[in-house]
């Protein structure tokens, strides 16, 4: 009797049973994919048998017999594996242990199924109430914009590390990342010097030993017990012996938790202070285990079916803790599409709104338009002619035009914009043109004045530099309608500026303005037509997202007679070559620019500063040439004097910051030298280069730099090889990403957390098709099938829509 009692005690050892059954339950839950344990079931079997014997669960012969069905598991089909695991559970039940449970995909083990009261019932609830978070951690999470449970769920990994493949200790190599499964043989903490101690835990897998090592973390010693089995992942180094510094680890001995940090595909997250990878991973693991039973699906059923997407809940679970890489790919594909789809819903709603709003149809064949086009000293290019016809077609409709006119440097956008403004004047309404800088606004004013004043049109320039008396006169003229056209900077959006009848808004280099600034200008009229222009070519993928609510017209042709620009990258030690070319050009009666990234000295950035270099160039390099200095800190009158002198030829060489990036038109300028060119983005470099080559003389651009990064070197290579602005824009988007491409955030779109506008370009097109179809049928998203979509959409886009409605 006593003997039987002793055997029953051994057979019911809960620790040994858990160590055997838990991975098998997880394997069944994952569809028998052989991913439940590091290295697969086959490599795990010897460890299991040793454990069963050591914990007095079964003697060696009986344990071998119990595990025999699992032999050959790696080559079996999922169905064959399921049968084998079921046989193990049946055998354990026959041993008479009360803790053995039959695995069932329909009814998984109790400890794997969260209790109903542990589930997250509201995805919008504050994250502090999530298990494992609390008020203190919630405060740290708030610093990376995680306030709600849904925010945390959408805090996607930045990468995923494959920690499933076990390495034997005797096979490790220096600097490689490995997963080791070993038994704790020893542990120690010792002090090297004051303020520095080292904790080592020695792991043994019977092929060798390796130390898991931590600096100034003596408490790690207490986390381990000798004899425990530990999974450790990290980078291997050798210093007298093999070691893994600061590894991620799982203690397998008696653990009641699934493997989170090792032995699986492990997520790696962007972090904030006091939140380590282990903590972030544990919080997300807890969350995905406790998601609501009925998880809301933003995508309509028809879209999910058409694209063969996994369910929303599955996608969120697998993006964080994928059972394998195919599941991760499917989860990412679905969540990327969801982000892009919500954007396209916003775009589609805007387009439908524009079509419903009424506006004054403009006269596009009036006397002033005709006289202007006939008086031009050149013929329009074919691209300009097509663009103008499209714009005139829009202006003639009783709905507000919303068109984007994009064209490479020097393609002639200003002429097209001027004709549109004259159509407004012919129709008895006012027009306004807003530019990002005083220099560009002034240049527009001078160019348009030359054409408009002979036609009897009153136009004015309004910037922050205009004197108070002049401003008062301009304001009065706008209010009574005597000022027909107003050119200016963001000063046009000030509350005191009031038009009598604003019918057309033109925004130049529109990416320099935020959503609110453009909306404020439009709000000064009754649904005015809007034309936005840019010389920064926009890749199609970006146009479909940031500007998808606008009709796009492209000027892809330059005026005839323009000479190509030769571009060359030089090290600082070769800059004399560029200076010689500048001297030669000046002697031949040409002009040039020298561009610097900074105004004053900077200790932080070892760059040539404009003020210091200007003095050196004037005194030692271009001693017999006339130089001018231009930068953003000058007053408006100072800038105007310098630009007038440069335009007239009194200044031969203009040393400047990027204030000349857009709009400055000096056909006689043929040489540009850009110092520290690797510090500029491709879009800026292309705009700067576009200041030359505007006449009929050969032009040369020199990029002076000693780039220290591969990205800097890549920019210079691309600039020298590529002349087409649209191709450069694609390259720039690929290098810098959509978040930085000329300040995408200014468009009021939520950040893309997972989607990439280059890699996921095909998804954008598909998302647009589905969004257009849904909005055509249900613009307000009121149908029952669109309720989850409606909630998700308005949570993200309500603020954007209210801003857009201002105009």
Structural class: alpha/beta
Radius of gyration: 34 Å
Instruction: Report how far apart the termini are.
Output: 90 Å
- What multimeric state do the chains show? single chain
The major β-sheet equals: 7 strands, parallel
Q: Helix tally?
A: 26
Report the strand count. Answer: 21
Order of the strands making up the biggest sheet = 11-12-10-13-14-9-15
On the 0-100 scale, what is the average pLDDT? 85
Q: pLDDT under 50 segments (min length 5)?
A: 1-14, 97-113, 742-746
Q: Work out the helicity level.
A: 40-55%
Strand content: 15-25%
Q: In one word, what is the shape?
A: elongated
Kindly list the characteristics that best describe this protein:
807 residues, alpha/beta, 6-stranded parallel sheet, 40% helix, elongated
Model description:
By secondary structure, the protein is of the alpha/beta class. It has 26 helices and 21 strands. A seven-stranded parallel β-sheet has the order 11-12-10-13-14-9-15, sandwiched between helices. A six-stranded parallel β-sheet has the order 16-21-20-17-19-18, sandwiched between helices. The longest helix is centred in the middle third of the chain and has 32 residues, at 325-356. It is elongated, with a radius of gyration of 34 Å.
Secondary structure layout plus pairing:
Elements: H1 2-11, H2 14-29, H3 41-54, H4 60-67, H5 78-94, H6 134-142, H7 149-153, E1 159-162, E2 177-193, E3 196-204, E4 209-215, E5 229-238, E6 242-245, E7 248-251, E8 265-268, H8 277-289, H9 301-307, H10 312-320, H11 325-356, H12 367-375, H13 382-395, E9 402-407, H14 413-426, E10 430-434, H15 438-452, E11 459-462, H16 468-480, E12 485-488, E13 502-508, H17 515-522, E14 529-534, H18 540-546, E15 551-555, E16 565-570, H19 575-587, E17 591-595, H20 610-621, E18 627-630, H21 636-648, E19 653-656, E20 669-675, H22 682-689, E21 699-704, H23 710-721, H24 725-736, H25 761-777, H26 787-805
Parallel strand pairs: 4-6, 9-14, 9-15, 10-12, 10-13, 11-12, 13-14, 16-21, 17-19, 17-20, 18-19, 20-21
Antiparallel strand pairs: 1-8, 2-3, 2-5, 3-4, 5-6, 5-7
Helix pairs in contact: 3-4, 8-10, 10-11, 11-25, 11-26, 12-14, 13-14, 23-24
């Amino acid at each position: 009797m006593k003997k039987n009692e002793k055997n029953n005690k051994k057979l019911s050892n809960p620790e040994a049973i858990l160590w055997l059954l838990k991975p098998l339950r997880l394997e069944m839950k994952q569809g028998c994919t052989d991913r439940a344990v590091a290295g697969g079931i086959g490599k795990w079997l010897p460890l299991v048998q040793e454990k069963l014997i050591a914990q007095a669960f079964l003697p060696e012969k009986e344990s071998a017999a119990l595990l025999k069905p699992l032999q050959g598991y790696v080559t079996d089909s999922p169905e064959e594996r399921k049968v084998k695991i079921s046989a193990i559970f049946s055998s354990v039940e026959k041993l008479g242990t009360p803790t053995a449970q039959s695995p069932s995909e329909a009814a998984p083990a109790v400890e794997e199924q969260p209790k109903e009261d542990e589930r997250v019932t509201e995805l919008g609830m504050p994250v502090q109430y999530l298990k494992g978070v609390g008020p203190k951690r919630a405060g740290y999470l708030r610093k990376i914009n995680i306030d709600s449970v849904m925010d945390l769920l959408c805090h996607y990994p930045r990468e995923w590390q494959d920690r499933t493949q076990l390495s034997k200790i005797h096979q490790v190599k220096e600097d490689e990342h490995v997963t080791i499964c070993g038994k704790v043989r020893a542990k120690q903490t010792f002090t090297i010097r004051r303020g520095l101690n080292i904790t080592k835990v020695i792991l043994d897998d019977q092929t060798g030993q390796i130390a898991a090592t931590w600096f100034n973390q003596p408490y790690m010693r207490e986390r381990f017990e000798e004899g425990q089995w530990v999974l450790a992942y990290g980078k291997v180094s050798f210093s007298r012996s093999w070691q893994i510094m600061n590894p991620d680890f799982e203690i397998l001995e008696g653990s009641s938790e699934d493997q989170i940090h090792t032995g699986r595909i492990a997520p790696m997250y962007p972090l904030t202070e006091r939140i380590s990878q282990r903590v972030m991973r544990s919080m997300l693991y807890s969350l995905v285990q406790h998601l609501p039973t009925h998880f809301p699906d933003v995508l309509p059923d028809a879209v999910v079916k058409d694209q063969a997407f996994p369910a929303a809940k599955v996608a969120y679970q697998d993006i964080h803790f994928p059972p394998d890489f195919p599941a991760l790919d499917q989860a990412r594909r679905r969540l990327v599409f969801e982000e892009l789809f919500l954007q396209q819903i916003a775009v589609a709603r805007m387009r439908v709104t524009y079509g419903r709003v009424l506006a004054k149809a403009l006269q596009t064949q009036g006397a002033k338009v005709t006289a202007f086009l006939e008086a031009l000293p050149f013929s329009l290019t074919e691209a300009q002619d097509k663009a103008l016809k499209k714009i005139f077609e829009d202006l003639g409709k009783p709905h507000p035009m919303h068109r984007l006119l994009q064209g490479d440097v020097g393609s002639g956008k200003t002429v097209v914009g001027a004709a549109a403004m004259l159509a407004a004047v012919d129709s008895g309404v006012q027009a306004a043109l807003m530019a990002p800088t005083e220099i560009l606004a002034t240049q527009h004013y001078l160019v348009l004045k030359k054409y408009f004043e002979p036609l009897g049109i009153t136009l004015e320039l309004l910037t922050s530099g205009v004197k108070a008396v002049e401003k008062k006169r301009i304001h009065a003229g706008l209010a009574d309608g005597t000022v027909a056209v107003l050119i200016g900077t963001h000063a046009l959006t000030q509350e005191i500026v009031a038009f009598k009848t604003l019918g057309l808004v033109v925004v130049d280099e529109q990416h320099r303005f935020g959503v609110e600034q453009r909306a404020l200008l439009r709000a000064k009229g009754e649904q005015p037509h809007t034309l936005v222009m840019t010389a920064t070519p926009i890749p199609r993928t970006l146009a479909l997202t940031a500007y998808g609510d606008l009709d796009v017209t492209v000027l892809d042709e330059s005026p005839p007679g323009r000479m190509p620009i030769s571009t060359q990258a030089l090290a600082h030690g070769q800059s004399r070559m560029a200076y010689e070319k500048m001297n030669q050009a000046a002697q031949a009666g040409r002009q040039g620019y020298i561009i610097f990234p900074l105004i004053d000295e900077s200790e932080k950035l070892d760059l040539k500063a404009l003020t210091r270099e200007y003095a050196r160039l004037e005194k030692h390099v271009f001693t017999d040439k006339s130089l001018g200095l231009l930068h953003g800190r000058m007053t408006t009158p100072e800038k105007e004097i310098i630009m007038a002198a440069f335009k007239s030829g009194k200044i031969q060489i203009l040393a400047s910051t990027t204030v000349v990036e857009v709009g400055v038109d000096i056909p006689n300028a043929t040489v540009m030298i850009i110092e520290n060119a690797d510090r500029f983005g491709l879009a800026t470099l292309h705009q700067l280069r576009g200041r030359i080559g505007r006449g009929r003389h050969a032009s040369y651009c020199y990029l002076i730099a000693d780039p220290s990064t591969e990205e800097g070197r890549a920019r210079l290579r691309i600039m020298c090889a590529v002349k087409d602005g649209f191709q450069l824009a694609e390259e720039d988007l690929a290098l810098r990403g959509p978040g930085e491409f000329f300040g995408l955030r200014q468009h009021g779109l939520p950040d893309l957390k997972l989607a990439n506008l280059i890699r996921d370009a095909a998804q954008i097109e598909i998302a647009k098709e589905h969004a257009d179809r849904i909005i055509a049928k249900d613009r307000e998203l009121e149908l029952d099938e669109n309720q989850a979509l409606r909630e998700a959409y308005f949570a993200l886009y309500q603020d954007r829509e209210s801003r857009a409605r201002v105009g």
